[in-house]
Amino acid sequence: MQEETVLSMRGICKEFPGVKALQNVDFTLRRGEIHALMGENGAGKSTLIKVLTGVYTKDAGHIQMEGTEGEANIRSPQDAQNIGISTVYQEITLCPNLTVAENMFIGREAGLLTHRKEYEKKAEQLLKNLNIPARARQELSSCSLAVQQMVAIARAVDMNCKVLILDEPTSSLDEKEVQMLFSLMRDLRSRGVGIIFVTHFLEQVYEVCDRITVLRNGELVGEYIIQDLPQVQLVAKMMGKELDETIEIDASGKKNTPTGETVYEAENLSSSEAKPFNFKISRGEVNGFTGLLGSGRSESVRAIFGADRVTGGKVRMNGKQVRISRPIDAMKNGIGYLPEDRKRDGIIADLSVRDNIILALQVMKGFFHPMSRSEMEKFADEYIHTLNIKTASKDTPVGSLSGGNQQKVILARWLLTHPEYLILDEPTRGIDIGTKLEIQRLVLKLAEENVSVTFISSEIEEMLRTCSRLIVMRDRKIVGELTGDELSQTNIMKTIAGGEKQ
Amino acid sequence: MRKAGKASWKTGGIGQLMIPLIAVGLLILFNLIRDPSFFSIHTTPGNSGGIVLTGNLISIINGASELAVLAMGMTLVTAACGGQDISVGAAAAIAGSVFVRVLKTPDVITGGTMILAFASCCVVAMLFGAFNGTLVAVFRIQPMIATLILYTCGRSIAYWINGGATPTVSSPIINAIGSYIPGVPIPTPIFIVLAVGILLALVFRFTNLRLYTQSVGINQGAAKLNGINSTMIKLLSFIILGLCVATAGCIGVSRLSLINHETLLLDVEMDAILAVAIGGNSLGGGKFRISGSILGAYIIQMLTITLYAMKVPSTNVKAYKAIVIILLVVMGSPVVKKKIADFWKHLRGSHPASVGKEAA
Amino acid sequence: MKKLLSLVLALALCLGVMAIAHADDLIKVGIVNNPPSESGYRAANVADFEKVFSTENGYEAKTYYSIKNDEQLAAAQSFITDGVDYLLISAAETTGWDVVLTNAAEAGIGVFLFDRMIDVDEALYAAAVVSDMRQEGETAVAWLEGLGLEEYNIIHIQGAMGSDAQIGRSNPLTEKCEANDNWKLVVQQTATWDEAEAKKITESVINSGEKFNVIYAENDGMAKGAVAALDENNIAHGVGKDVVVMGFDCNKWALRELLAGNWNYDGQCSPFQAQVISDIIKSGEAPAQKIIISVEKGFDATTITEQDVLDYGLGEE
């Protein structure tokens, strides 16, 4: 491998109102290497890419490109392309109703359409060179997704790119197509192109990459040569836990002792988003779903609640078979669901704190049975007090509260329905540490009151503190279930990473 | 605390009604300066016995009746769907035609015929509302595009119902609806608006329509995850608007004892949308205030009557109307609202004691 | 698309011809008109032509209705191909007809224009029977003058500004008021043919307390709207009452108001051109003048008869 640097980013900072998206991040790309950019959601991967491609302007830092004197001046995607940085996104951004050749050359040179023969010949050559199984005069939409992606790459390559950014290129491809794409990537590597590969599939990283740069919370964790970083270490880096330092949480923290009586049971449950899975939870149990982003943990609990279109499976509540195809069915069966994306799926921003608290209970009571004003006020007061929600008044629009307090409002909403089974998907994400602890304590208290809880969090420590059983998911499948003594950070990370590949 | 105060400017609170109330105030002031007797109310012996009240104020409130009723329904559709129904005028022409058609079937118009006619016209208008609603809620077509269909063909359907003519009906009952009930000094349409308003208030009181509609309008995804059937709510909003359309159509027909499908409530959809906007409601959906829209309807009517009273030349009327409306809409825009809010805050900054009061 | 249309049209015509092929002695006319749904006026116009050019009167008529000029042109051309004796046209637009009319002339087909003029050489048509909107207004104003009132305080409610009917009906009145001191326009405002607006305009005058004794509304609907305002304020109107009510169009229901003495005058832009054309065809002679202005009726409440309502009233009752 050559060690010639083609791109170097130093001390990149980017701040959005209230969020430090990138803090002093360095990134180096060498000629002829495939470099994975890794990190959990919110780590700053996409911000870094957007700074590099000129979508965002950086607040501070330097970017240098090989072949460009001094600092590279990237103010727009066009600038980036001009100095040799090309990006191929997850979604194909070509025109499906044009031919392969037209897609490769459109918008690049003036008067191209008059030299149709010429550019078709050129395209044919390029396709052949890169071993892309497509013909120049074929309509793009008649190619498979992988080939379309490869055409996009060919277009980028032909524009003399030195840096090729592939942003989640494999997420909609099947195994065979992934292999096709990888061989193209290896081919480009041998031609000296530097490739930045963004993905959340760990196995793929180890299959094709030379180096890994890990980001976490907008900061650089480190740059590693692939052989030096076992998969389980990578997971630890991404999650921010050094493996050696992991301290086993005192098991006495988990007070929940399930009675053994099954509250909810799903058999081969599947939805438009989740593959079939089996799952059950006992009364008073707190369990967790864990796995990396995209592992299917959220999709699974959404299927339980009927949030996505349920496509199959049997569901039993307290041993009785029930049909849950819509959220209202789940609610009537005593299931509550706090969604992962608070802003998008949780709060009704313009409505008052009061209305947000009583919403779910009100819907369960029915369209024709509105609660009295005094009843609403009473409930709102009660939960604002119990959960210590900081708001100017009950009439304040919930959107103007802080993230933690918004989350408490949604928690209040579901607690008010007195659920038998409560699903909390990332209830502590993006909220302050104090509120985090309050929510953890609340979960344990609920379990004592015989409520079953599913608790999902990206922070393993938090799950260890609250859950007595962990279901581990990888690539949309349940790959393990850990209970009792098996519950340790090391074990969890091993299972997430795939025990066989340490 | 400050955050909360600012938010009340955007959504709900008396802040929403500030602009329309200022507009009403300015229009009243302008007219009083121009002609102090503008708002005087006279008593005139009515043509069906008794004494009736007349005057510009009565004309304004009476004349805005159809618009006020439509604005109420339009507010709901806007809130739930984040879009507007542009077919209300055409649908009202259909409703009015059905009304007259049923009325003219028997030889003598009795109270029974009247009820039957109104009921059939409501059913028809609700069906057309359901048609629009299905396109919007089920097929997810943008409201303006979905209702464009009925907007285009509605008056032709009305033409067909009328058999190409402009039928007239004359009956004391129709007269009582369109102008005065004998012995009552106030025009009947005003009572109809009141009745519709009270009915809607009762619906809001005894169902969750307001909460559901606002939830769907603000965040459809979240509403769904809380068990609200957003499709039904959107559909319902269009059906309720259908009822409003039927009512407005019947008022319009009764005023003149005539149905002219070409002119009945012509271009009223634009005024209705305008009324919703002037009332401080977001045309993007979400929180709403029916009272704001009703106020908006009266403002538009007051403007029209003012221009007539000023004898503005025919060719200039629309230009004058446009100027005032631009002013109103700009004043109600988020940018200007924020500026005004900041200005107030700045003013109050020198009296720290009052800051807390505003937020509370 | 146009080709397909003419094909369908031709096919329909062929079928029509076969159906009445036995009647050789009938005069074949092709009528191109606007659709009856356009207005009450047009509905009456279409009905008039259907009545006059009937089999009983010795005609075999084919009709085509469209508001689109190109569709009308295609229809006229297919009538020519079909070998009609006469072509009767009320064109959607005034231009674009040269080729079709030249073809008709070459085929020896007599062309009559009705209701609307076409911008072509006079030689290309036998006669044009059209309305003069201004004459309508003048007739009405002359009638009003004939009342011999001491003062004329007029509420003038105009139609949609810029339309032919509005200009023809407005100008004579405006000019009269400018020329005479005792003719005064209390208000001159457009209600864009809308009854409800007319009512509001009248109401605003009543509310202002200004004196008026004439309502000059440019169609029946607006007159009805104005009268509704008078009724609500208990102001007497009609024959021998305080306010003179004038309307236009002569809808049947409006003429009934005249008959009952509630209104005073109704003017009409005559939709009845069929008889004039039929007379020319039957006489076999060229008319003395190519352009024939239809006689515009104006009905006075004191002289109108039940028969007038039946003969000249438009639409249903």
Would you mind describing this structure in some detail?
The complex is a heterotrimer of chains A (502), B (360) and C (317). Chain A has 502 residues and is α/β, with parallel strands linked by helices. Chain A folds into 3 domains: 5-244, P-loop containing nucleotide triphosphate hydrolases (Rossmann fold, 3-Layer(aba) Sandwich), CATH 3.40.50; 256-334 and 420-502, P-loop containing nucleotide triphosphate hydrolases (Rossmann fold), CATH 3.40.50.300; 342-418, no CATH class. Chain A has 17 helices and 19 strands. In chain A, a hairpin with a 2-residue loop joins strand 1 and strand 2. The longest helix of chain A is centred in the middle third of the chain and has 16 residues, at 175-190. The radius of gyration of chain A is 26 Å and the shape is elongated. Chain B has a single domain (59-315), classed as ABC transporter involved in vitamin B12 uptake, BtuC (Orthogonal Bundle), CATH 1.10.3470. In chain B, 71% of the residues lie in helices and 2% in strands. In chain B, helix 4 (65-81) packs parallel to helix 9, helix 4 (65-81) crosses helix 14 and helix 8 (172-178) crosses helix 12. Chain C has a 6-stranded parallel β-sheet, sandwiched between helices. Chain C has a 6-stranded mixed β-sheet with strand order 7-6-8-9-10-12, with helices on both faces. Chains in contact: A-B, B-C.
